[in-house]
Amino acid sequence: MDKLKIAIQKSGRLSEKSLELLRECGIKISKGSQTLKTNSSNFPIEVLFLRDDDIPQYVEQNVADIGILGENEVWEKNRKVETIRKLGFGNCRLSLAIPKDENYTGISYFNNKKVATSYPKILSEFCAENNLYVEIEEISGSVEIAPSIGLAHGIFDIVSTGSTLLMNGLKEVETVTKSEAILIKSENLSHEKQKILEKLLFRIQAVIYSRE
Ligand code: ATP
Ligand code: ZN
Predict the structure, then answer these.
(1) Are 181 and 70 in contact (CB under 8 A)?
(2) What ipTM was estimated for this complex?
(3) In this predicted model, what pLDDT tens digit does every residue of 131-186 receive, in sequence order?
(4) For ligand 1, atom 28, which residue shows the shortest CA distance?
């Protein structure tokens, strides 16, 4: 029988909650810290543990059939995948922040300024919509440090509590968009895999309702 291949984050903020969701669906999964893929013993599913950044590409290319990841990664990567539903965890916002002593005058503040981010595509779309000319510095991590080391005037990054910003002497000045974990699927699933997905979705629905 065919198995539905699901990609989830290997280790990070969404890992535990993604596994927990599958387990609450009654799907048995055993995972060691080095496991890269594993089969469930009681449901036709194979779990692939990947970096969240790679999930849109793998789902587009049918390496995985479905995946769990933050909406922000789907927007940024712009791959051909379908969003099935929101999952109610991993909530965060994508915001612009500047040094806390700066006088913020509204979004025109960012005109002709340098902004560091790991999400250049989402940021450039926001700038285009708002007729802002911003010099985007793409960096892959530790974005919050960019203003204090003179790399950029501000940052565009994921915020949940704001404590990381505070610790780095920054203040959030614009929320550009909000994001949460979602389930995505490949655009071409076989009939058999679609059937398994429907079973899984039925269970996910029940788990999410029971949490509310
Ligand atoms: P990977 O090694 O898989 O690339 P990562 O470092 O890119 O991991 P995490 O920091 O684990 O990613 O975040 C995964 C996702 O969790 C984010 O893309 C976002 O959707 C969500 N998230 C929720 N709250 C936060 C937060 N405070 N900081 C970062 N991400 C958050
Ligand atoms: Zn990542």
Answers:
(1) yes
(2) 0.97
(3) 999 999 999 999 999 999 999 999 999 998 999 999 999 999 999 999 999 999 99
(4) 158
In the reported structure, the alpha carbon of residue 75 is separated from the centroid of ligand 1 by a whole-number distance in angstroms of 14
Query: Cα 45 vs. chain centroid, distance in angstroms?
Result: 22
Based on the fold, state whether residues 173 and 196 are members of the same structural domain.
no
- 3-state SS of 63-122 is CCCEEEEEHHHHHHHCCCCEEEEECCCCCEEEEEEEECCCCCCCHHHHCCEEEEECCHHH
Q: Could you tell me the CATH number of the domain that includes residue 192?
A: 3.40.190.10
What residue numbers bound the domain in which 124 lies? 92-179
Q: Please check whether residues 114 and 138 belong to one and the same domain.
A: yes
Residue located nearest, by CA, to atom 30 of ligand 1: 158
Tokens read off for 71: 């909406």
Q: Are strands 154-159 and 92-99 parallel, antiparallel or unpaired?
A: antiparallel
One domain, residues 100 and 85: no
pTM: 0.95
Q: Report d(CA 54, CA 74) in Å as an integer.
A: 10
Domains contained in the chain, number:
2
Look at ligand 1, atom 11, and give the residue with the nearest C-alpha.
12
Which of 36, 53, 158 best tests ligand 1's pocket when mutated (most atoms within 8 Å of CB)? 158
3-state secondary structure of 38: strand
Verify that 86 and 146 share a domain, yes or no: no
